[in-house]
Amino acid sequence: MRAPLSWLREYVDIPADQTGRDVADRLIAAGLEVERVETVAGDLVPPLVLGRVLAIDELTEFKKPIRFCRVEVGPAHGGERGIICGASNFAVDDLVVVALPGAVLPGGFEITARKTYGHVSDGMICSERELGLGEDHDGIMVLPPDAGVPGDDAMPVLGLGDEVLDIAVTPDRGYALSIRGIAREAATAYGLPLLDPGLELVDLPAPVAGAAPHPCGSEDLVACDLFTLRTLVGFDPHVPTPVWMRRRLTACGMRSVSLAVDVTNYVMLETGQPLHAFDLRKLRGPVVARRARPGEQLETLDHVARTLDSDDIVISDDRGAVGLAGTMGGLETEIDDDSTDIALEAAHFSPSGVARMSRRHKLSSEASRRFERGVDRVLAPYASARALALLQRLGGGTYLGMTAVEAPYEPATVVMAAGHPAEVAGMTIPRETVERHLRSVGCEVTADGDGEDALLRVDPPSWRPDLVDPQDLVEEIVRLVGYQNLPATLPKASAGYGWTAGQRVRRRVGLALAGAGFVEVLDYPFVGAAELDALMVPADDPRRRMLLLANPLSDEQPGLRTTLLPGLLAAVRRNVGRGNDDIAVYEVGAVVRLRDGQSPTGISDPPRPDVHDRPEDAELAALEALLPDQPRHLAVALTGSREPAGWWGAARPAAWADAVQAARLVADTVGAGLTVRTGSTAPFHPGRCAELVVGDEVVGHAGELHPRVVEAFGLPARTAAMELDLDALVAAARDVTPAPAVVTMPLAKEDLAVVVDADVPAADLAAALVDGAGELLESLRLFDVYTGSQVGEGRKSLAFALRFRAPDRTLSAEETAAAREAALAEASRRHGAVLRGA
């Protein structure tokens, strides 16, 4: 929200010596986020004066229209001056803006007296764009006759040099999306009264007898609990918007359209209440707020045809929808250059309903930004009266009256102990200070009792829908007391406490993965159905059961993640898109899995334990039972080269085996015995997927992503990934990792190459060899796989390196051979393995 300082001064008598930076500092101390303070046309250098055109000489001997004008600029500036101008939208006696020699216009354009087109041009008649006031360059700026007299300084007339505060309004401070709301904060910050010229209901003329205003209604009093419609006929649409209004709109970042539209925008900026003007002659029947009908169509003012959802809130007439409520009007009923009859709508819409609709249609407007944050519930008739008074004063017309519909409205009351703010803030805040600050933000306060133990009944103002809880009131009091005045107290850590066992394990895992060349990433913990579809997750998979957010940041990601892979694969895609081809990333984070019987929407009214003491164990257990499972997972993703090319040879591309090896690395780090066997689950390639097992529990999967998943996420071919349940892995790990055994006996080496059917997993064959070899086997490693004519079709040869050692003696050749033969026999029994070459 951009707020000109001159406009704020109309609401608050800010001391004249206070600059925009000074006001910004006060507002920042009060809790508003002032991003910057700008000066309108700050690089413009005077003299810039008002001038009256005395005579115009049309120079017809040139290819384009050229005029030599005699302009009166006042005795102090030489009286009458001759100026060359190429615009033709002004006439004799018009009041214009003249930049005299020595002036410098925005962009560094210096004005000098020079001879051109056969005459000396002693200055420049300026357009809006040349002054930095807008983009209008079709002609020069013509001011109203009463704007001043020739020779007057044009800077204050045009608002040039005015300071503008650019404020980032947080979602809980919707009232600050208005000059009135920001002025209220400035008044509080300076301890001054709010003048608020737009607060009082405008004294409109009595409606014309016998002429009924246009009817209105609301079919859904939850979506629209207040709807008003004022009718004005005989309005002159050709009256230009006054300069003072245009310059304020421009300073606030809005462009001037027409008088009717400009007035609605001006009042919205002034009061915070969005308004919409319909061309009354284009309406068919009553104007009604309702929910959209499924499949209903609407072309909005941005010329986009939209298919509406049944959850959308629309404004309609007898033909159907004519506008998206609180967001944008429809093209059919748009105000145009011939609109003489106006129906002026001002209403109050559901903040959540407008927010969902705005995101669903990817349509954010000045109106929707305000309704999403909460608009003053009772402001609509006041704001529409203000707008109609401006329309009638500037463009004429006859007021026919107002129609309205309203749901019962009961303001909220919050009960709070007078000493509660001091207890929360950790400092002394007297009761008188509490009541004074609450009243300064518009609350009505009544006390029941004496002293700090008194109960305060607080009625928040209608423009503060965010004040619904005692903690909301505490926040207001603390920010007005001053955050800088809060005591700084460092928490005291109990002696003897360090990292938990889980934190130590996760740190070891992170260091191990970093040492293996993986980079940690942190992704958003949100997911949507489209991402699970891209992962090819089946409809009955537990990963489909998401805990839905009450107010998601994006309608495409309404739930908490049930798997880490969507965010991790999106990170890979972003990096590949930016030229980083060789990627190995990992993430450790919680996923959310709903338990049986738990609702995806959560608990509507969860219990709230007392904050003064530790909850009882039974209370904590009951709260824990309401929560879904939140296991901590670990996932990796790899693509590109796993080992770079160099003088040693060509690069080695990342493959599914690297994802499996990452799982083995993590298991070894935490001290868990991990078994790898063939598996098949989304989103992995069915023939290149490994199931990760600890004991009898499947803790994860690793392998190459399915080609359709790779295509859906826009990843390089053969991207590999792994995801496992880190908590389950840690739970299955040994409590104490044993120190490595130091042995002095020599190692006996044996190699064994066996031939089996091609569909026998290498992991299953290795398990059989281990079981058969017995206790003397120290390690086993697969070092070669061969398929070809030498072993026959449908067969493969796997070569293993077996290492034997006894802790107390040197093994004899007979013992080693016997262990080798026992391993071969067990592999033969389980998988039909035969010794290669036998």
Q: Unreliable runs, pLDDT <50, ≥5 residues?
A: none
Radius of gyration: 38 Å
Residues in helices, as a percent range: 25-40%
Q: Please count the helical segments.
A: 21
Structural class: alpha+beta
Q: Hey, roughly how much beta strand do the residues contain?
A: 25-35%
Total E-strand runs: 42
Can you tell me the overall shape? Answer: elongated
How far apart are the termini? 85 Å
Please state how the strands of the largest beta sheet are arranged side by side. Answer: 28-31-32-38-37-36-35
Largest sheet geometry = 7 strands, mixed
What's the mean pLDDT score? 91
Descriptive report:
The protein has 838 residues and is α+β, with helices and mostly antiparallel strands. The protein is 26% helix and 26% strand. The model has no long low-confidence stretch (mean pLDDT 91). A hairpin with a 2-residue loop joins strand 36 (684-694) and strand 37 (697-705). The strands form twelve sheets. Strands 28-31-32-38-37-36-35 form a seven-stranded mixed β-sheet, sandwiched between helices. Strands 3, 4, 5, 6, 11 and 12 form a six-stranded antiparallel β-sheet that branches. The protein has a five-stranded mixed β-sheet with strand order 14-17-20-21-22. The protein has 21 helices and 42 strands.
